[in-house]
């Protein structure tokens, strides 16, 4: 698959403090990539470096093969972004805002502006002043603005921040559609685990200026999945299970073991029944990213 | 580039800044016109309406007498001759020097507004050109377009120059149009004295000559435009450096007002002449008023102002293109 955004060992030092300690990753066409980390992990700083607002102290960023430092205009042309809140000119109408940004891009036609307005569903209010928009509408106008130049990579910093539940679901679907149908690469950052879990294909977990893990969401979760056994009496069951699989511990009335294949579970179940243990439920559970995060960062809490 | 400048002008116009400035100018001009009108009226009451011709004739005779008397220097003689020429012109053309027309009002207005009023108006536009984008967060959108940073700043600078031109132009037009209602629109060819220079304590009149008022006005408005550009550029730099528009305005306001105060009290502090704010009264050199500090000339003041503006411009562009935006 084609790589659209490549980041090579990017560092940022401010004063004597190293804020970003060497990031490397690459994004593919048509994928939604999540940046997950607590506030202050360096997500926004990283995103600002990706869009050229902050110069990295060292390292390279390539967008569609163009070096962001050396060929800024060519590279940035392939990026559409919202950094933090979608701040637009409140004293202009939505349409005028889009026209304003269209004038800064090479040859954007009125039809294209119309197109993005319809894409984000703002037709009815587009000629009103942005001052009168709700946060959700501003967010959508921000996305319209980002899509104006037909970017290859869309970078959204906390795209669901401040939206209501319906807005969040809409935004999620919208981002998935863009990636799947328009084949855009979408990079989203969030400190909300549930967000990333539902929206992203791959995720990078950031903590204190470093990426501590990059993997597919599915894989990460599977690795940490557990099997919960609701059995009685527990001490006998534990002895039996120890012979067959790895017991991790007890939680409430459950015995927790690692994730196992169907065959292993069936065999364990047979052994338990042979020994006269009553089995009321066997359940395989995916952990929430929250548990995952705490495990990976060694107890660092989120928010 | 034209597109970028269009964007900047659109933002200035939609913020209604230019409209507000034009309104302020209109109100102030009306106010001053009325004040001037009252003043003329009291003078007229004191010396009578028809008396000004005889009075002027008396002045001419006085000047002639002084010319004929012995013991005055050649230089002074020349000055008196020019003076005589001017008085004769008033009489021949039936102009009351005490009750002048709209162009004279324009001259008076620009001479009094070059130091503080005009710079304040320019400051209102220039102060938030960059800082408002920074405080509003829109700077992030501007700088993530496929446009180089220096071009974005250049478009803003050009917009500042255009707005300054508009301000100076509207001051000229409004002061002419409004005061003309009361004083009449004539008087473009009124001869005025210029070319004074001050040497030490003495007024040097060797270079004095008469020029028509329209030429005089052109020079003064040219100088006013230059001063406005310099103040605009300095404000522009502060606007790049600071996120808060209020801070920009505060600093600029303090500088301008301190300039007005310093001008009247720095005659013994010579190095103060390198401060931009005591050099703003360029029109004084044309009308022959003593500069605040000895040794200040028109070219000196213009050079000082130009250097300040140039340095400000270099700092603005350097900082804007290099800075990390948070």
UniProtKB/TrEMBL annotation, chain A:
Record flagged with keyword Hydrolase: no
InterPro entries: AAA+_ATPase, ABC_transporter-like_ATP-bd, ABC_transporter-like_CS, P-loop_NTPase
Entry GO MF terms: ATP binding; ATP hydrolysis activity
PROSITE patterns given in the database record: ABC_TRANSPORTER_1, ABC_TRANSPORTER_2
Keyword DNA-binding set for record: no
Residue span, ABC transporter domain: 5-233
Residue ranges that the Swiss-Prot or TrEMBL entry lists as coiled coil: none
UniProt keywords, alphabetically: ATP-binding, Nucleotide-binding, Transport
Gene3D superfamilies reported for this sequence: P-loop containing nucleotide triphosphate hydrolases (3.40.50.300)
Family indicated by similarity: Belongs to the ABC transporter superfamily.
Protein name listed in UniProt: ABC-2 type transport system ATP-binding protein
Species this protein is from: Anoxybacillus pushchinoensis
UniProtKB/TrEMBL annotation, chain B:
Pfam families: ABC2_membrane_2 (PF12679)
Keyword Kinase: no
Keyword Transmembrane assigned: yes
Bilayer-crossing regions: 18-37, 157-185, 216-241, 248-269, 298-320
Gene Ontology MF terms: ABC-type transporter activity
Keywords tagged on the record: Membrane, Transmembrane, Transmembrane helix
Gene Ontology CC terms: plasma membrane
Domain of life of the organism encoding this protein: Bacteria
Protein name: ABC-2 type transport system permease protein
């Amino acid at each position: 698959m084609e790589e659209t955004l490549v980041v090579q060992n990017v560092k940022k030092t401010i004063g004597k403090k190293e804020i970003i300690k060497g990031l490397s990753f690459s994004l593919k066409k048509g994928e939604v990539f999540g940046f997950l980390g607590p506030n202050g992990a360096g997500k926004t700083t990283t995103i600002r470096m990706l869009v050229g607002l902050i110069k990295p102290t060292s390292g390279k960023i390539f967008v569609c093969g163009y070096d962001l430092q050396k060929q800024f205009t060519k590279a940035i042309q392939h990026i559409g972004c919202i950094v933090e809140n979608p701040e637009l000119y409140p004293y202009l109408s939505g349409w005028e805002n889009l026209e304003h940004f269209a004038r800064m891009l090479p040859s954007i036609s009125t039809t294209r502006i119309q197109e993005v307005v319809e894409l984000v569903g703002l037709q009815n209010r587009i000629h009103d002043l942005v001052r009168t928009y709700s946060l959700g509408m501003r967010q959508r106008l921000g996305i319209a603005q980002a899509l104006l130049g037909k970017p290859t990579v869309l970078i959204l910093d906390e795209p669901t921040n401040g939206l209501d539940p319906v807005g969040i679901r809409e935004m999620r679907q919208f981002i998935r559609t863009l990636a799947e149908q328009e084949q855009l690469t979408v990079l989203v950052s969030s400190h909300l685990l549930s967000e990333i879990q539902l929206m992203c294909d791959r995720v990078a977990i950031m903590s204190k200026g470093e990426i501590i893990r990059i993997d597919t969401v599915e894989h990460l979760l599977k690795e940490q999945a557990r099997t919960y056994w609701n059995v009685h009496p527990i001490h006998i069951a534990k002895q039996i299970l120890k012979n067959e699989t790895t017991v991790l511990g007890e939680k409430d009335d459950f015995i927790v073991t690692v994730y196992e294949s169907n065959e292993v579970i069936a065999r364990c179940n047979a052994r338990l029944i042979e020994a006269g243990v009553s089995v009321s439920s066997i359940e395989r559970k995916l952990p929430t990213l929250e548990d995952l995060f705490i495990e990976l960062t060694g107890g660092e809490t989120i928010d | 580039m034209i597109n970028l400048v269009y964007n900047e002008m659109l933002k200035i116009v939609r913020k209604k800044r230019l409209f507000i400035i034009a309104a302020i100018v209109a109100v102030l001009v009306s106010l001053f016109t009325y004040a001037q009108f009252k003043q003329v009226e009291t003078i007229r009451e004191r010396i009578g309406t028809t008396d000004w011709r005889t009075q002027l004739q008396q002045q001419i005779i006085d000047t002639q007498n002084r010319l004929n008397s012995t013991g005055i220097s050649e230089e002074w003689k020349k000055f008196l001759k020019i003076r005589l020429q001017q008085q004769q012109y008033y009489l021949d053309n039936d102009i009351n020097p005490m009750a002048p027309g709209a162009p004279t009002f324009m001259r008076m207005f620009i001479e009094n507004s070059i130091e503080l009023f005009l710079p304040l108006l320019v400051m209102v536009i220039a102060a938030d050109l960059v800082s408002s984008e920074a405080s509003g967060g829109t700077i992030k959108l501007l700088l993530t377009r496929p446009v180089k940073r220096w071009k974005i700043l250049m478009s803003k600078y050009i917009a500042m120059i255009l707005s300054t031109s508009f301000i100076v132009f509207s001051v000229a037009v409004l002061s002419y149009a409004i005061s003309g209602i009361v004083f009449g629109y004539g008087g473009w060819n009124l001869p005025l004295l210029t070319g004074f220079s001050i040497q030490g304590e003495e007024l040097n009149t060797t270079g004095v000559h008469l020029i028509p008022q329209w030429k005089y006005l052109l020079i003064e408005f040219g100088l006013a435009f230059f001063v406005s550009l310099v103040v605009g550029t300095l404000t522009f730099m502060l606007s790049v450096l600071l996120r808060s528009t209020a801070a920009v305005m505060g600093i600029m306001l303090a500088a301008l007002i301190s300039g007005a105060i310093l001008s009247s009290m720095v005659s013994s502090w010579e190095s103060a002449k390198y401060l931009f704010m005591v050099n703003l009264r360029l029109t004084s050199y044309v009308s022959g008023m003593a500069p605040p500090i000895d040794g200040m000339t028109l070219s000196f003041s213009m050079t000082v102002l130009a250097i300040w503006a140039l340095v400000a411009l270099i700092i603005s562009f350097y900082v804007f293109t290099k800075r990390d935006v948070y």
